[in-house]
C-alpha cells in the first residue's frame, strides 16, 4: 500500500492510498478511507470509469430497474462521487458535511461536477422542494457509523415527503446479517413511513460479521433482478424499535 495523503478534518481522519489488491481483486486501485478503516470509495486507475465497489453497482441497478428515466437525485454522503459521477446527464444534488472529502474527490478521484453542497444532509434536504426527487440516497458515515439523526422516523417522514410518487429512498448501511438491533430498528422505522420496503445484504468475509446492507423504501413496488445486484441477496430483517429524534 502506498499512502498518498492523511489529514484530520473536523469530522474524521481521512486517507488516500493506492493498492494493488482490493477485497481479493488484483489491479491498481486508489482508495478513500476514514479512520474506521472502511473504504469510502475506490477507483480503478486502469479503468477509471469502472465502478469498483459492489454497493454502488447495486444501487445503480435499483435506480435503473425502478425508474430508468429518472431525472433528479439527492445524495447524502459524497465519498468520491461514484454514483453522481456515473450520470453526467442527470440532475444530482449531493450533501457532504466534510469539505475535505469533496476537495480530495476532486484532487485524487477526478470528480469535476459543481453539484455538492457543504453541510448537514438532513438540514440541506429540508430546504429542497417537496415531491420533486426521483431518488434520495443515504450513504453517509462517520467513525461511529451512519449518523443517528439520519435514521429517525422524523427524518424518514421528511424524505418520503420530498420524493415523487414513483420515488424511492435507498440507504447504504453497515451491519450484521442477522440479529442486528440497529438494522432491525432502521428497517422497522422505514416500514412506518414507506408502503414497500426491501432489504439486501452483501455476503461478507467469514472473518467479519459486518456486511453492506441496502434498504429500499417507497410507495410503489420495488423491482430488481438478482443478476444486477452485484452479489447482494434479499434479506429478511427482524422486528425492531422505532428510532425517534
UniProtKB/TrEMBL annotation:
Keywords tagged on the record: Polyamine biosynthesis
UniProt keyword annotation of Cytoplasm present: no
Lyase listed as a keyword: no
Identification of the protein by name: Spermidine synthase
Organism: Paenibacillus vulneris
